[in-house]
Amino acid sequence: QVQLVESGGGLVQPGGSLRLSCAASGDIFSVNAMGWYRQTPGKQREVVATITTGGTTNYVSSVRGRFTISRDNDKNTIYLEMNDLKPADTATYYCYLHQSDKSPHGVNYWGQGTQVTVSS
Predict the structure, then answer these.
(1) Residue 75 in 3-state DSSP?
(2) What residues pair up with 4 in beta bridges, in sequence order?
(3) pLDDT tens per residue, the chain (120 residues)?
């Protein structure tokens, strides 16, 4: 099994910054991409940022220019640097990992989440 452990969440004021970390461990054998999604009560899950093993990144439009995703492949770890945080960024942030298996679509894993709250 694959385990993903997030850390770095907290309470910050609007305009503040946080750095989230996600460490993956376990049966990791063919990673395609890792990333972050967020979820608030009563709302759909939203993918925030993704990064491939080769380093290609993608961001949801609402965070472009403010968030930066990065990776350390040797440590199976990704980070999310969040700057100029807004109340709309308040959510539980989850790390995910996608890797290939015998299925043509691969398999996804996710962590337990870390809470980010942005308020005055």
Answers:
(1) helix
(2) 24
(3) 899 999 999 999 999 999 999 999 999 999 999 999 999 988 889 999 999 988 999 999 999 999 999 998 778 899 999 999 999 999 999 999 999 998 999 999 999 999 999 999
10 beta partners: 116
Residue 12 to residue 84: CA distance in whole angstroms: 10
List the one residue out of 35, 84, 23, 78 whose CA is nearest residue 60.
35
Comparing C-alpha atoms, which of 111, 93, 120 is closest to residue 11?
120
**Dihedral angle at the C-alpha atoms of 110, 74, 1, 46, nearest 10 degrees?**
10
Q: Residue type for 16, please?
A: G
Fill in the DSSP letter of residue 84.
S
Helical (H) or strand (E) element with 64: none
Q: For residue 102, report the phi and psi dihedrals to the nearest 5 degrees.
A: -70, -15
The residue count of the chain comes to 120
